[in-house]
C-alpha cells in the first residue's frame, strides 16, 4: 500500500513538473512572471553554489530552531503549571483567550521597534506563534487524563510532581508531540515571513532581494528551497513523534498496518 502511495505521489510530482515546464513555453503564462521549471532548476543550482545562500539558510535555520526550542519549553512549562494550579488557570484564562487570536504578523511593527532587523525580531514572532500551538495541546492533553488514574495516584499518596510525571505526562505526551509538530511548521512560516517583511538575514530576505531585482528564476528557486525545508522539517517532526510515542496505541497500530 505504501509503495502504491509513493508511486502515485511521484507520478503527481512528475506531472506537476511537466506542466510547469510546458505552460510558460506554450505562452499560456508569461515567462517573465513564471519561468519554465528548467530555468528554475538552473537558478537553484546557481544558488546552491553561492556561499551567501548557505549563510542565509543557516540564518533561517538558526531563527527557526532557537524560536521553536524556546516556544516548546515555555509552552510545556506554562501548560503544566496552569494544569497543576487550578487558580492560576482560572486567573489567566481570559488573558490567554485575548492574546491567542492575535496574529503574529501584527507584532511586526513592535518587533522592528524593539530589535530592528536583528535575530531577536525573528525570535519574537516565531516564539509568539509557536508557543500557543504547544500550550493549547498541553492543556488539551492534561484535560484528557483519565480521572480514575488520577484518583488512584492520589490514593497511593503520590505527590503533585509524581502525578505529573507518572500520570499526567504520559497521557498528555501524544498531544504535546502534536503541538511540537505544528509548532515546527508555524515557526518556519514565521521565520521566513519575518525575514521577508522585516529584512532580517535569511532566506526570506534573499527572496525579497531577488523579487525587487527582477531575478524571477532565482526568486522561485528560493521559494522551492523553503518548500523543501518545510517538507524536511515535517518529516523530521513526524519521525521524532513516532519514536517518542512508540509505546502508544496509535503508533503501534500505524506500524502494524
TrEMBL record:
Pfam families, per database record: BPD_transp_1
Keywords tagged on the record: Cell membrane, Membrane, Transmembrane, Transmembrane helix, Transport
Transmembrane domains' residue ranges: 64-86, 98-116, 122-142, 172-199, 219-237
Source superkingdom: Bacteria
Protein name: ABC transporter permease
ABC transmembrane type-1 domain sequence ranges: 57-241
InterPro entries in the cross-refs: MetI-like, MetI-like_sf
Family of this protein: Belongs to the binding-protein-dependent transport system permease family.
UniProt-listed PROSITE patterns: ABC_TM1
Species in which this protein is naturally found: Streptomyces pratens
Classification lineage: Bacteria, Bacillati, Actinomycetota, Actinomycetes, Kitasatosporales
Subcellular location: Cell membrane
